[in-house]
Structure prediction request, 422 residues.
Amino acid sequence: MSPENNDLLCRVEGAAPMGQIMRRHWLPAALSEELAERDGDPVRVRLLGEDLVAFRDSDGKIGLVGEFCPHRNASLFYGRNEECGLRCLYHGWKVAADGTVLEMPSEPPERAMARKVKHKSYPTHEAAGIVWAYMGPESEIPEFEPPVFLPAPGTRIAIGKVVVNCNWAQILEGAIDSAHSSTLHVSDMLSVSVDTARATDEKWLRPSGDKAPRLQVQTTDFGFRYVAIRRPLADADMHDYIRMTLFIAPYTVLIPPLDRYRVALVHVPVDDTHTAFHFIAFGCDSTPDEETWRKFLALQPGIDVDENWRNRRSRSNNYLQDREAMNRGSWTGISGIPNQDIVMWESMGPIAGRNKERLGASDVAIVAFRRQMLEAARQMQAGGSAIGTGRSRTPHASLRSFEGIVPKGTDWRSLGAIEAAE
Prediction:
């Protein structure tokens, strides 16, 4: 890939086409738990290179506004959240959740200056334990659609979150790279002779030790589906072990389900070189509670990640890699499936140089992602619509991935709960 195409794929700040695509979708801005209290502490939010502040006002409404006061650009993060507005400490200007400037104590009332000033703000919606924001043109704002991990009201959801120090695209490419899981995560995704992949509180189990899956891709109206076909440990002459993954443009991946719950991965660009990565378990009553889920992922707030969701494992401390554990049998010496991924993603650099790669047969889905999203960026550049915003799009809540052992010759395109549109 040329450096020019690499930038087109990766960069999201300012007028970058990929960022403009993201702006036309509802984006996860914060977790609801970060804004649990009315008139509680404001929260810094950075999305697509913009510095913002979120707060829950006295009526429970969530505001997402520009961080810097429209008066003298002091940070509103330090302001007072009171009486349905965020008040700057410097001169007392007060901003409502919708950006209306309610009060200007430093200005003479007769000037009526407040009516002339509107602060930057973005619409928000709260669902699935997440505060969502729309950052695109007001004339194009879509109705909020339940995400793939909220297939029905009351669905049990557990979210792990971490800010990763690299570009969103190289993280998403990890999510659609089925082959790496058989090596990088081999200590956590064990090969055992069972009929289906299972989950425990400590391990995910698979009925295959095949490290070189055969990949096939099907383009859909929501992005694409792809399948990784492996040889099962038992009866390999008559059966295939199938794992189907969905890319839901522009930033979500639905990975194959486990017997206890389903899993979605959400990649939100903070800016060109940082990403808010969400690892989400959802589905039935056996979905783990949030504390158990975060412990399994080794993404526990206050232990593994700080109050800003920054990972306490980093290059400076070698990601707390335990070489003695490696000698005892751990493949990586790194705790938590996402942390193993993060080491790989961040080691590629803030924005991976894709002109230096040597892709192979296991990278079919990654090639499909790059082609699809580069075409989407060019379409956006030319004044077209953003990928994933068409009216004929399959409702995300109806989408399903698939995992299981099937007779050889089974058409994998017939598997799952929906028929993807060509």
User: Anything to note?
Assistant: The longest helix spans residues 364-381. The CA atoms of residues 236 and 408 lie 9 Å apart. The chain has eight helices and 21 strands. The chain has a mean pLDDT of 93.
